[in-house]
Automatic annotation (TrEMBL):
Highest taxon listed in the record's lineage: Bacteria
Keywords carried by this UniProt record: Membrane, Transmembrane, Transmembrane helix
Protein name (record): Holin
Annotated transmembrane regions: 6-24, 36-53, 59-79
Origin species: Lysinibacillus irui
Length: 88
């Protein structure tokens, strides 16, 4: 098992994590300061949910979910900064 597989799984999960985190933000009215930790937790949860569907070990899916959550968090911050820049 190499890092390429972990990153490929994480790339596939980023869109799911972004969507779920955004739905949680809108429905629960989460403050944007809690979005990074929310994205990481959602990513790990998605990794757990997808684990029975793939042939990879559990730790690979957990690491992939963690990476997907961090990536989704960075994407969220990037979009937020671009939105603020566009308003000026």
């Amino acid at each position: 098992m190499d890092l390429t597989n972990i990153f490929m799984i994480a790339i596939g999960m980023v869109a799911i994590v972004l969507a779920v985190a955004e739905v949680l933000k809108k429905t629960i009215n989460l403050n944007t300061q809690y979005m990074p930790i929310t994205s990481v937790v959602v990513g790990i949860f998605i990794g757990l949910v997808l684990w029975p569907l793939v042939e990879y070990p559990l730790y690979v899916m957990l690491i992939s979910g963690f990476i997907a959550g961090l990536t989704a968090s960075g994407t969220f911050d990037l979009l937020k900064a671009a939105k603020k820049e566009g308003e000026k």
